[in-house]
Amino acid sequence: MAAFVKKKKRENLKQKYKDLKCPATGVSTEDGEPTAASWKWYRAMDEAIGCRPSIVPPALIASSGPDVAVASTSSVSPAPDTPRASRKRTQKSIENLIKEMEEREMAREQEAVEREEKRWREMEEKEERRERDRQEREERRHAEDREREERWHQEASQREERLLRLLECIANK
Length: 173
Known about the structure:
single chain; mainly alpha; two-stranded antiparallel ribbon
C-alpha cells in the first residue's frame, strides 16, 4: 500500500512538473494555478528529472545550409545514461524529494503544535492575570468596606460624645 502511495505521489509530481515545464498554449495563470515560478517544488523537480531525455532531448540539430549542421549545447554534453540507470537515478531523486516534502510537512505540523501550545500557555497566563486582578479588586473592595465601616463607627462615636456633652450641658443648667 505504501509503495502504491509513493508511486502515485511520484507520478503526480512528474505530471505537475511536466505541465509546468511546458504549459499548454492559451492557458491563463490568473486563476491562481501555480506556475513554474510559483510552485515550490519546481526547482527540486527540475534538478531531479529536468535533464531526462523525455523532458529535454539530448540533441537538437538544425541545418542552416546544405552542408552545414548546427548542434545544440545539449548535444555536446556527455553521453546519456542507460534508460534503466536514468530511471533509477530519477526514482532516487523523486524519493529524496518526497522524503524532503514529508520532512517539511512534519516540521510544519510540529510548528503548528508549538504555536497551539504557545497560544494555550498565553491563554492560561491571561486567565491567571485576570484571576489575580479579580482577587486584588476584591481585596481592595473589602479593605475599602472595612475603612468605611471604621469611619462610620468613629463618626457615630463622635456624635454620641457630642450628644452626651450637650446633655451634660443641659443637665448642668
